[in-house]
Specification:
The chain is mostly helical. It has 2 domains: 2-76; 90-221, Photosystem II 12 kDa extrinsic protein (DNA polymerase, domain 1). The protein is 45% helix and 10% strand. It has helices spanning 2-17, 33-77, 113-119, 149-155, 169-172, 180-193, 210-216; strands at residues 90-97, 103-108, 143-146, 162-163, 220-221. It has a 3-stranded mixed sheet with strand order 2-1-3. A two-stranded parallel ribbon has the order 4-5. A hairpin with a 5-residue loop joins strand 1 (90-97) and strand 2. Helix 1 (2-17) crosses helix 2 (33-77).
Amino acid sequence: MASAWREAAQRAYTAAHGAIEAGADADDEPPGWRWSWSRRTAVVAVLALALVAVGVAVVPRSLAGGGDREAVAMESVAPTTSAVPFAAAAVVVHVAGAVAEPGVYELPSGARVQDAIDAAGGALVPADLDVLNLARVVVDGERLAVGEAADAAAAGGADGKVNVNVAGADALTALPGVGPVLAQRIVDYREEHGPFASVEALDAVSGIGPAVLEGLRDAATV
């Protein structure tokens, strides 16, 4: 390492004062030359060490600053996440009868009978909506039959009783102990197995037990 510094100092001295004449002996050096040469060498060495020290101090600081800037940049482009709302619950209803477009429709939870009729294009002119509870909340899987005036009249039996072989699901809810779900079960059973032979035959429908059947005896007919 010492020889390297000495060579560097010699090159610097040669550039400033010219080459030393050949054959010159160290004893011929003028007084003070050796000290002068050593002083210049020391100055060059100090300057070189200072430059190295500055470079060592600056480079890590720059790298650190660059790392900070990179981290800030990554944070600025990092995608933000937001909660994805759940899809609203829905009900599926079969709208049949006197409507413009009978069919199966998906409605938002809490939809009313009127909403189901509107989804099917609205009721036709012959429809009798008075027998329907338009404000009732529809049930998932329900078949909503919109009857015509003649059908509504046929649903009423003698003494104002409800004909369980003709009435739609909404008309059946007028029976004691029969709600929308049970009314739809009566309609489904009737469509699958045919008309009921008697009021007592309603006990074959799931959900109609002895207590409900007893209340139907005076309100229903076949």
